[in-house]
């Protein structure tokens, strides 16, 4: 299947973002944008500001200055994370942030909460729409479970699942929201080769079949170079490069700052 | 052997979503309901109905309320009794001022009033977390107790400072006998328990649990923290409010504000923890445990009779009660509901140990 | 002018009462700091220590011996608590440990009164208990002495934490469990130690409150006063417990005296909680609590 | 481990209720059952224990000395309430069908406990004696046929207190212009006398201000600073539990003299004054009975019970405030049953019969003297409409060693109190939909 990267306004665009905590500057004058259906990778050493960038996009942090645009429209500066999520932006976390007391199925169903109606009395009585809604969304959740090949752990509390499985469930929870833009924070971290291959396959399928735009932070250079359309490189809170994988590989600043040095990632 | 789900396949999501998907559970629940609705009223004596089963049911309802807030949403509350008080006083005031209102309606109003107050004292939860949140609910606890003691309007300026529930009549039937009161309570509590079970296994419950387990992640996947927490406070307080109204109307008849003091709040918290946080069944088990245990200990110590003075027996009851709670937590920290699950697992394999 | 003196009298009286609340709050803070347990039984431990002390005293022992015996009992209690309860509950969530301390509270309440009875024991440690005029201001001598005891206790704890091996170990655990383990301190010992210290603090609190109220069940209720103290001061800070006590004491007295007449009085119970709530709206970790940093 | 826990739980569940269903039904009418509900644990056990010891010792004495009431032996069963209404309801329901004829009469011993069962009494046909506590308006026997706040209710007591203060001031006319501080427990119980104080203030021209003390009252500095600023001529102390001694100490600290403080009977025992030490000397409080052991009845208890080695509590407690109150409570209960036996015969009686006995109880000074209780209690005369029985109030002063008599038996302002009682009872009747019975026979 041939995938076409969109050319209109970017799904999300950050313009001249600054972010500081107390005296510490986490991001300085960062601009980055991602086009529909594009696969953007963000790399850089630890502390370069990659996760901060994600947190700005998902509304967990508020930028000290700068503008975030969603499909060309400027987002209100203090948009809450749940409002961002309802724009169609879903994410995973660097250290898995599943709901450990809930089953894999419930975690994934929770991912669909933003698409569901709420009515206390109807849900309490399980009549009419509330009942139909649960069943409809359950069907979608089961599709995701099948897609991620995790039906056997459906009922298991995720706290009891092995690490690789948890990563998958977390991806499932993000996919459940049917996002336009998916932020993946180190989706391959701590996985063995086989698990990484599976994860790559899932990510590419999502992108190609559903046309979901991707931004991923990843340390595994092989994976990054293989699957991304474009790579943005960060160092000390600044973007030092933003180009196609092959160009980045040859970029002298990047080599000096990151690739060339003794980073073991 | 008897408790085995093999061979039971669910072919639709609707069947899988049934409240008790396993056949043995359904049979068990059916038996339990028959016992609760038919056998007990027929055979239990007044002592059991009036002074044991009715309060256990009322406490169960309050415990469900607290469990929604603390067990499912992870917001610690030490003000449960205050929300019960709001319910009791709201129902009383409505009945006294508008006597035409059927008492069942005033129970609903009791719940709604408590829910409103619950939302008010839930507001700090948007900023305060964990044990620190206890301060907001303790503020509610002491403030509401003070309010009902000091503002005469709430007690209809009764000189004794207490409220007295008007008689309960519905379509000409007067709920006087122990059986009718027990059945009334049972219907309300069972109905609300099923509603609670429905809530916690649908969209609402998943939002609550997500907030409990990891609020940052919950918000990032589109859950409105404020709305979800306040909904939990409202629903929880609604349950407590109805429980308070039942306490005043069905169980005691006359209550003073001090009947809903902080020790009552602690008592309900104990029930929830002993029964199992995040379990509707556990709320019932916990309430039964906390109400019945002292009675059983007192009775059992009666068997050893006159060797000990009444005073010593009374104090030993505390030693045994405390010791049992500790033993319990050491052996099964997840509560009675978890213990029940383990029993079920065992039954599933029995008689083969592996 | 009289109004000003009266105000000062209320304020000073409130601050002194506050130190008495701090005394109880200290025990909570010590245990919470070292083990993350909110010890519901702290109030009962105060009662238990005071009952034991008076009981031994009434058997004819001199006060010092009674204190030593009581302290020994509290250490044994600390051992028992660690050995029979918390050793079996490692890695349990906080709320479960909290519940276990509730069980402990019932147990100790029953045990103490089974052994020592329920009657009010008068405890006279020779602390003068009359008003003392400092110029135009009336101050309670008893409260002054009690405040001095609190000051001594806090100083003593400070020395203990800074100079002794166990004290440093306790601080280590409080700061970082992993770090403490890595320098080879058995966690069991640390827990026994901290419960023993909390037992000692309970004894001091029991003596002070016991000579104020008589030794009887009701002194376990002072724990209710200690909770807002701890919340305002932060669960993990000893200076916080002191400052929290001062704030609660002063604010509740001022509120009762100056706001009480307008609303029918009796607002001492809830005012500290409302105040604590306002404090927390501004600083969710308490005045001295450690800043909670959330990472995702 | 789990197995142990399950077995323990199962054993408890199975063993626990056994005594609750096993009932003694011998049925020969030879034993009069009296249920006893006590609180020997919790914050008020300090008073509850000596009270109950006195109660039980009196019953033991009647059995030992007289072989029971009119020859019918008394049997009883004690149930621990811990001063909690729900535990009391459980005790009430557990004990109400015990004995040959069911529970004869309950003494709940606690105002909140009283409220918890008032609704159930007419259906169960069991009377309640609330001696010096409970619902004041229950004195109106037309609305509350089964409740008996015998001797003196809170309002009568409080009016007598004002009369006592007047006697110190040299007459009722001198009350005009006095300032009285009402320091009370901040609860329904504590606030109950506010209306009657207001009425009296109006009638006699004194001024009253209320100072609530929050439960449990272990620190009352602010309250007493307020009291001092008010500069009252007298202080009424309406306390309960640990609050009393703290109040006395705090009063001494801020310079309110103890002899200007007049307490209610729940602030009137050695447990309240001894811990306060010197601060309590000169403190006066009201009672409806005398203290000490200089009464034939008390001597009989010592001879027949304590000397026989059957004392429930320590011998030193005999004659103290709570102990004597327990004895008086038992005395009144027994006399009511005796009255009923005069009507229904000397056999075990049920609740309705005992209710008749209480309602028709008439103890003159001569009757009381014959019972060995001369000057221990005032005469009582209960009627259908008046469930209080027209008691009088005695004031006693703490000397540092014991309570000494400080007044005669004083009459309350009955006219004033009765009107308020009828008004309050009528409100209760309206809310509950009760039609008061008529009392003309």
Could you give the count of β-strands of chain C? 2
Strand percentage of chain C:
under 5%
Percent of residues in helices of chain C comes to over 70%
| Distinct helical segment count of chain C | 11
Strand content of chain A: 15-25%
Query: What's the arrangement of strands in the largest beta sheet of chain A?
Result: 6-7-8-3-9-10
List the keywords.
heterotetramer, C: 296 residues, mainly alpha, two-stranded antiparallel sheet, globular, D: 441 residues, alpha/beta, Rossmann fold, 2 domains, seven-stranded mixed β-sheet, 17 helices, 13 strands
Strand and helix map with partners:
The complex is a heterotetramer of chains A (265), B (354), C (296) and D (441).
Chain A: E1 12-21, E2 24-34, E3 39-43, H1 50-57, E4 65-70, E5 73-74, H2 81-86, E6 89-91, H3 104-111, H4 120-125, H5 129-147, H6 163-176, E7 181-185, H7 193-210, E8 213-217, H8 221-227, E9 230-235, E10 238-243, H9 245-250, H10 252-259
Parallel strand pairs in A: 3-8, 3-9, 6-7, 7-8
Antiparallel strand pairs in A: 1-2, 1-4, 4-5, 9-10
Helix pairs in contact in A: 3-6, 5-6
Chain B: H1 13-16, H2 23-43, H3 46-72, H4 80-97, H5 103-122, H6 134-150, E1 163-164, E2 169-170, E3 173-174, H7 178-200, H8 203-213, H9 215-220, H10 225-252, E4 254-255, H11 262-275, H12 280-304, H13 310-331, H14 336-349
Antiparallel strand pairs in B: 1-4, 2-3
Helix pairs in contact in B: 2-7, 3-7, 3-8, 3-10, 3-11, 3-12, 4-5, 4-6, 4-10, 5-10, 7-10, 8-10, 11-12, 12-13
Chain D: H1 2-15, H2 18-21, E1 31-38, H3 45-66, E2 73-80, H4 85-95, H5 111-118, H6 121-124, E3 128-129, E4 147-148, H7 154-169, E5 179-185, H8 188-191, H9 194-204, E6 207-213, H10 221-230, E7 234-238, H11 243-254, E8 261-263, H12 270-273, E9 284-287, H13 296-306, H14 321-344, H15 351-359, E10 362-363, H16 365-370, E11 380-381, E12 394-398, E13 403-405, H17 414-432
Helix pairs in contact in D: 3-13, 3-14, 4-5, 10-11, 14-15
Your description of this structure?
The complex is a heterotetramer of chains A (265), B (354), C (296) and D (441). Chain A has 265 residues and is of the alpha/beta class. Chain A has a domain at 12-88 and 179-259: 3-Layer(aba) Sandwich (Rossmann fold), CATH 3.40.50. Chain A contains 10 helices and 10 strands. Chain A has helices at residues 50-57, 81-86, 104-111, 120-125, 129-147, 163-176, 193-210, 221-227, 245-250, 252-259; strands at residues 12-21, 24-34, 39-43, 65-70, 73-74, 89-91, 181-185, 213-217, 230-235, 238-243. In chain A, strand 7, helix 7 and strand 8 form a beta-alpha-beta unit. The relative contact order of chain A is 0.18. The mean pLDDT of chain A is 89. Chain B contains 14 helices and 4 strands. Chain B has helices at residues 13-16, 23-43, 46-72, 80-97, 103-122, 134-150, 178-200, 203-213, 215-220, 225-252, 262-275, 280-304, 310-331, 336-349; strands at 163-164, 169-170, 173-174, 254-255. In chain B, strand 2 and strand 3 (173-174) form a beta hairpin. In chain B, helix 2 packs antiparallel against helix 7 and helix 3 runs antiparallel to helix 10 (225-252). Chain B is globular. Chain C has one domain. Chain C is built from 11 helices and 2 strands. A two-stranded antiparallel sheet of chain C has the order 1-2. Chain D is an alpha/beta fold and 441 residues long. Chain D has helices at residues 2-15, 18-21, 45-66, 85-95, 111-118, 121-124, 154-169, 188-191, 194-204, 221-230, 243-254, 270-273, 296-306, 321-344, 351-359, 365-370, 414-432, and strands at residues 31-38, 73-80, 128-129, 147-148, 179-185, 207-213, 234-238, 261-263, 284-287, 362-363, 380-381, 394-398, 403-405. In chain D, helix 4 packs across helix 5, helix 10 crosses helix 11 (243-254) and helix 14 (321-344) crosses helix 15. The chains are: A alpha/beta (265), B mainly alpha (354), C mainly alpha (296), D alpha/beta (441).
């Amino acid at each position: 299947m041939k995938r076409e990267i969109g050319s209109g306004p970017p799904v999300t665009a950050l313009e001249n973002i600054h972010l500081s905590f107390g005296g510490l500057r986490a991001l300085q004058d960062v601009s980055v944008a991602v086009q529909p259906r594009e696969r953007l990778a963000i790399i850089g050493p630890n502390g370069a500001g990659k996760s901060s960038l994600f947190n700005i996009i998902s509304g967990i942090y508020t930028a000290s200055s700068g503008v975030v645009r969603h499909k060309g429209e400027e987002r209100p500066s203090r948009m809450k994370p749940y409002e961002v999520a309802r724009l169609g932006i879903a994410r995973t976390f660097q250290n898995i942030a599943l709901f450990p007391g809930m089953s894999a199925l419930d975690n994934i169903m929770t991912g669909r909460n933003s698409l569901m109606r709420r009515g206390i009395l109807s849900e309490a009585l399980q009549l009419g729409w509330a009942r139909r809604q649960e069943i409809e969304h359950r069907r979608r959740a089961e599709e995701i479970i099948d897609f991620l090949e995790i039906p056997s752990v459906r009922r298991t509390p995720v706290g009891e699942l092995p690490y690789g499985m948890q990563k998958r469930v977390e991806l499932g929870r993000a996919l459940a929201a049917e996002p336009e833009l998916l932020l993946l924070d180190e989706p391959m971290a701590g996985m063995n080769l086989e698990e990484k291959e599976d994860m790559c396959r899932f990510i590419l399928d999502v992108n190609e079949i559903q046309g979901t735009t991707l931004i991923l932070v990843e340390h595994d250079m092989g994976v990054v170079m293989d699957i991304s359309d474009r790579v943005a490189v960060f160092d000390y809170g600044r973007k030092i490069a933003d180009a196609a994988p092959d160009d980045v590989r040859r970029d002298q600043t990047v080599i000096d700052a990151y690739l060339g040095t003794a980073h073991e990632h | 052997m008897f408790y085995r789900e093999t061979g039971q396949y669910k072919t639709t999501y609707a069947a899988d979503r049934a409240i008790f998907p396993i056949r043995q559970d359904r049979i068990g629940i059916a038996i339990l309901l028959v016992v609760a609705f038919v056998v007990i009223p027929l055979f239990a004596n007044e002592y059991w109905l009036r002074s044991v089963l009715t309060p256990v049911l009322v406490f169960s309802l309050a415990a469900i309320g607290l469990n929604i807030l603390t067990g499912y949403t992870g917001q610690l509350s030490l003000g449960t009794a205050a929300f019960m008080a709001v319910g009791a006083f709201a129902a009383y005031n409505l009945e006294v001022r508008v006597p035409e209102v059927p008492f069942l309606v005033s129970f609903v109003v009791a719940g709604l009033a408590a829910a409103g107050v619950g939302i008010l004292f839930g507001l700090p939860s948007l900023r305060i977390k964990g044990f620190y949140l206890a301060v907001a609910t303790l503020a509610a606890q002491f403030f509401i107790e003070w309010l009902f003691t000091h503002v005469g309007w709430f007690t209809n300026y009764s000189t004794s400072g207490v409220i007295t529930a008007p008689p309960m009549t519905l379509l000409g039937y007067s709920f006087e006998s122990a059986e009718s009161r027990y059945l009334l309570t049972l219907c309300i509590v069972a109905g609300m328990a099923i509603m609670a079970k429905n809530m916690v296994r649908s969209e609402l419950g998943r939002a609550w649990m997500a907030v409990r387990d990891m609020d940052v992640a919950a918000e990032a996947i589109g859950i409105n923290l404020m709305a979800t927490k306040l909904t939990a406070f409202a629903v929880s307080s609604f349950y407590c409010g109805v429980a308070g109204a039942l306490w005043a109307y069905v169980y005691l008849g006359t209550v003073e504000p001090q009947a809903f003091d902080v020790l009552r709040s602690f008592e309900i918290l104990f029930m929830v923890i002993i029964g199992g946080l995040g379990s509707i069944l556990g709320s019932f088990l916990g309430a039964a445990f906390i109400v019945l245990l002292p009675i059983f200990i007192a009775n059992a110590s009666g068997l050893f009779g006159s060797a000990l003075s009444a005073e010593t027996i009374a104090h030993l009851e505390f030693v045994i009660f405390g010791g049992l709670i500790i033993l319990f937590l050491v052996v099964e920290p997840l509560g009675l509901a978890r213990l029940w699950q383990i029993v079920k697992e065992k039954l599933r394999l029995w008689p083969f140990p592996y | 002018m009289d109004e000003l003196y009266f105000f000062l009298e209320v304020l000073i009286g409130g601050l002194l009462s506050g130190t008495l609340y701090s005394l109880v709050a200290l025990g909570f803070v010590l245990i919470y700091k070292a083990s993350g347990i909110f010890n519901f039984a702290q109030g009962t431990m105060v009662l238990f220590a005071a009952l034991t002390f008076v009981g031994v005293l009434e058997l004819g022992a001199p006060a010092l011996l009674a204190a030593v015996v009581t302290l020994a009992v509290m250490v044994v209690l600390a051992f028992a608590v660690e050995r029979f309860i918390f050793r079996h509950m490692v890695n349990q969530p906080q709320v479960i440990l909290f519940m276990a301390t509730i069980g402990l509270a019932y147990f100790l309440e029953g045990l103490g009164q089974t052994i020592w009875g329920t009657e009010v024991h008068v405890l006279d440690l020779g602390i003068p208990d009359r008003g003392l005029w400092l110029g135009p201001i009336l101050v309670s001598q008893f409260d002054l002495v009690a405040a001095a005891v609190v000051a001594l206790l806090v100083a003593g704890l400070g020395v203990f934490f800074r100079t002794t091996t166990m004290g440093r170990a306790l601080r280590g655990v409080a700061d970082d469990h992993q770090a403490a383990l890595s320098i080879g301190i058995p966690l069991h010992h640390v827990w026994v130690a901290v419960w023993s210290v909390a037992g000692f603090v309970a004894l001091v609190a029991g003596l002070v409150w016991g000579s104020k109220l008589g030794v009887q069940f009701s002194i376990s209720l002072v724990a209710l006063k200690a909770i807002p103290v701890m919340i305002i001061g932060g669960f993990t800070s000893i200076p916080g417990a002191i400052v929290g006590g001062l704030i609660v004491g002063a604010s509740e007295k001022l509120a009762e005296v100056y706001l009480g007449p307008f609303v029918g009085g009796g607002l001492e119970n809830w005012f500290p909680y409302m105040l604590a709530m306002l404090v927390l709206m501004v600083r969710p970790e308490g005045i001295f609590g450690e800043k909670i940093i959330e990472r995702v | 481990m789990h197995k142990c826990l399950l077995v323990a739980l199962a054993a408890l569940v199975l063993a626990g209720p056994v005594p609750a269903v096993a009932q003694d039904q011998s049925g020969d009418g030879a034993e009069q059952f009296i249920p006893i509900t006590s609180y020997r644990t919790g914050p008020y056990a300090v008073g509850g224990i000596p009270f109950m010891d006195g109660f039980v010792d009196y019953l033991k004495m009647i059995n030992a000395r007289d072989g029971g009431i009119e020859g019918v032996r008394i049997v009883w069963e004690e149930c621990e309430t811990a001063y909690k209404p729900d535990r009391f309801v459980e005790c009430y329901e557990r004990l109400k069908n015990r004995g040959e004829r069911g529970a004869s009469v309950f003494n709940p011993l606690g105002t909140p406990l009283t409220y918890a069962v008032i609704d159930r009494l007419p259906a169960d046909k069991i009377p309640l004696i609330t001696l010096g506590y409970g619902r004041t308006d229950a004195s109106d026997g037309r609305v509350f046929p089964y409740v008996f706040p015998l001797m003196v209710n809170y309002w009568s007591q409080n009016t007598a207190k004002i009369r006592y203060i007047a006697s110190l001031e040299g007459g009722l006319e001198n009350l005009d212009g006095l300032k009285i501080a009402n320091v009370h427990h901040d609860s329904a119980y504590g606030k109950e006398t506010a209306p009657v104080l207001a009425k009296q203030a109006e009638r006699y021209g004194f001024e009253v201000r209320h100072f609530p003390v929050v439960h449990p009252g272990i620190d009352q500095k602010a309250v007493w600073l307020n009291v001092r600023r008010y500069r009252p001529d007298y202080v009424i102390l309406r306390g309960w539990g640990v609050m009393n001694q703290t109040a006395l100490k705090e009063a001494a600290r801020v310079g309110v003299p103890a002899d200007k403080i007049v307490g209610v009977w729940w602030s009137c025992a050695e447990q309240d004054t001894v811990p306060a030490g010197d601060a309590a000397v000169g403190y006066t409080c009201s009672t409806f009975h005398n203290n000490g052991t200089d009464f034939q009845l008390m001597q009989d208890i010592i001879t027949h019970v304590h000397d026989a080695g059957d004392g429930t509590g320590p011998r030193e407690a005999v004659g103290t405030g709570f102990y004597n109150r327990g004895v008086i409570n038992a005395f009144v209960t027994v006399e009511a049953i005796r009255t009923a036996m005069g009507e229904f015969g000397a056999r075990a009686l049920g609740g309705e019969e005992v209710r008749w006995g209480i309602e028709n109880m008439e103890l003159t000074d001569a009757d009381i003297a014959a019972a060995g209780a001369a000057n221990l209690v005032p005469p009582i005369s209960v009627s259908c409409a008046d469930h209080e029985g027209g008691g009088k109030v005695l004031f006693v002063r703490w000397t540092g060693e014991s309570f000494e008599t400080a007044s005669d038996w004083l009459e309350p302002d009955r006219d004033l109190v009765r009107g308020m009682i009828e008004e309050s009872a009528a409100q209760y009747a309206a809310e509950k939909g009760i039609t008061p019975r008529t009392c003309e026979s």
